[in-house]
Amino acid sequence: MAIGVNNSTERLDSIEQMYFKRILNHIKNVLKIDVTQYKDSYIMRRIRVRMKATKCKTFKEYYEYLKSHSDENEELAETLTVNVTEFWRDITVYNEIQKIIDEWVADRRIRKIRIWSAGCSSGEEPYGVAIILSEAMEKHKRKLLNVSITATDIDREILAKAKRGVYQAKQLKNLPPQIIEKYFIKLNDEEYMIKNTLKKFVRFQYHDLIKDPPLKNMDMVLCRNVIIYFDKKIQEEIFLKFYEALNPGGFLILGKTEILHGEAKKLFKTYNARERIYQKPKE
């Protein structure tokens, strides 16, 4: 379902409809962000965040502001982008991930582990999972275990930031002090950088969940708080891609407000309903 004012939850008069469409065209042609698969309500909410910040009362006012203030392009682009802001956000989910990974690493028959962090944003999620893997490998003395985390996003700028691995102190607030000391280098009072011993587990790459084929042979796919911004038809298609990406017995982990639907709901079995963890049946 393409985005458009007609299927919006908000009624606009003809003038506002026209300027809303102009803003959408600006986002697509100037910011180079494809919003055609996002829900109308989400795009409107995001635009209104910037309208409030710039004291614009109508879409017409904001469109004219956008055209006359080049620095607003970056602000709007950032507002439209969904970013994970903390390590181990929603700790109960990460506790479940830790249990799954610990079981894998403890099993000497398992020689390799492949994980896909889809919509990884600035890297907190894949690096957070890498910490769990590293700790499990040390605990079970599995130095030679073949481990890789592929982290993907459509924002090349945010991927470059993730590769650098520099974070604000407040983004580490959920991590125990000994973990911070072990896996981060303190640059100054406000910034910490991921150590290379952890970076080696994570590979960042561009990937469009909608247009590109899925990665393959994955044991776990994490895609948290990304799917909700797509319309239902696109969500169903992406769920099927994740099913294709996973090995039998592999896990799909969604955000707390996201649930499976469509054909994927029949294909996956629920592993932990509360934490939105699903499993591809073993053959």
From TrEMBL:
<dbReference type="InterPro" id="IPR000780">
    <property type="entry name" value="CheR_MeTrfase"/>
</dbReference>
<dbReference type="InterPro" id="IPR026024">
    <property type="entry name" value="Chemotaxis_MeTrfase_CheR"/>
</dbReference>
<dbReference type="GO" id="GO:0008983">
    <property type="term" value="F:protein-glutamate O-methyltransferase activity"/>
</dbReference>
<dbReference type="InterPro" id="IPR050903">
    <property type="entry name" value="Bact_Chemotaxis_MeTrfase"/>
</dbReference>
<feature type="domain" description="CheR-type methyltransferase">
    <location>
        <begin position="8"/>
        <end position="281"/>
    </location>
</feature>
<keyword id="KW-0808">Transferase</keyword>
<dbReference type="Pfam" id="PF01739">
    <property type="entry name" value="CheR"/>
</dbReference>
<keyword id="KW-0489">Methyltransferase</keyword>
<dbReference type="InterPro" id="IPR022641">
    <property type="entry name" value="CheR_N"/>
</dbReference>
<protein>
    <recommendedName>
        <fullName>protein-glutamate O-methyltransferase</fullName>
        <ecNumber>2.1.1.80</ecNumber>
    </recommendedName>
</protein>
<dbReference type="InterPro" id="IPR029063">
    <property type="entry name" value="SAM-dependent_MTases_sf"/>
</dbReference>
<keyword id="KW-0949">S-adenosyl-L-methionine</keyword>
<dbReference type="Pfam" id="PF03705">
    <property type="entry name" value="CheR_N"/>
</dbReference>
<dbReference type="GO" id="GO:0032259">
    <property type="term" value="P:methylation"/>
</dbReference>
<dbReference type="InterPro" id="IPR036804">
    <property type="entry name" value="CheR_N_sf"/>
</dbReference>
<dbReference type="InterPro" id="IPR022642">
    <property type="entry name" value="CheR_C"/>
</dbReference>
